[in-house]
Amino acid sequence: MNKQYQASDFGRVAVLLGGESAEREVSLRSGTAVLTSLQRQGIDAIAFDPAKRQLTDLIKENIDRVLIMLHGRGGEDGSMQGALQQLKIPYTGSGVLGSALAMDKIHSKQIWESVGLPTAKYQIADKSGFEAGSCSAIMEKLGNKVMVKPAREGSSIGMAKVTSAEQLETAILDAFNYDNQVLLEQFIDGPEFTVALLQGKALPSIRMSTPHTFYDYAAKYQDDTTEYFCPSGLAEQDEAELAALASQAFHALSGSGWGRIDVMRDDAGRFFLLESNTVPGMTEKSLVPKAAKVAGIDFDALTLSILATSMTA
User: Fold this and answer.
1) What is the pLDDT of residues 184-208, one digit of tens each?
2) Annotated binding-site ranges for Mg(2+)
3) What domains appear along the chain, each with residue ranges and CATH number?
4) Which residues are known catalytic residues?
5) Backbone φ and ψ of 9, nearest 5°
6) Are 105 and 152 in contact (CB under 8 A)?
7) Which residues does the annotation place in the binding site?
């Protein structure tokens, strides 16, 4: 942290966890880990699940600030941030605009394209106008390996990798169960990296390796077969390039406080932006704590740094 805070400086803190999104279970685990850490450090913190309580209860509880550990819709998409602003309660992380833009993979890519940042070729499938007959042309245009992603879901929910027009049609129709718009993205053959950002600084990158078809929900939260490499093995110059790219991508989406940028690297060594996360996971398998540890920041110091982002909102 740029400034050292005492536990009493934060007042009474509510850790928002759970919620009603498809990522509820992960949020509960993230929130519980963070809450335990804050309480261990002497901070007056309570758990608050907006799926079970009205937000106005935050005022009744005399809450001074909120640490948001809600993943996905309702917590990471700007709606919670706007509600807290109306209640005049400071909160952690990105504001309304940054949260909304990062949550929407399509708008993220459009903004990155507009400022010249590298991202894979893509198309958009809209539920109201989707035609199954277009799948063959889409596959050909995007290189015959395509990632299908609901525009506004996280934790790889509803995602699929496809290699045929028939698979593409099935995957799109499945993704429509999660969102009315679906991102169809050229698959980048190569390693996946993630860069955590904390109070304006990029933490060491992490390289993920999984026997799964891609880094899906099971690889992230359920299996022990996923390997994480931090340091990631990049040359010093490449590490600096990736850190700069992640910082630029986060800033372009109006991200602030803390977050994470996911990136692929192709066989030619070029980085391509995938997505931004404004409330990354904080479970025992999560990536931000792994990167922070390599940077010399233990879990308690990390949670305190995240909480401190509420002091400058």
Assistant:
1) 999 999 999 999 999 999 999 999 9
2) 262, 275, 277
3) 7-92 (3.40.50.20), 101-118+189-310 (3.30.470.20), 122-186 (3.30.1490.20)
4) 23, 155, 286
5) -65, -25
6) yes
7) 262, 275, 277
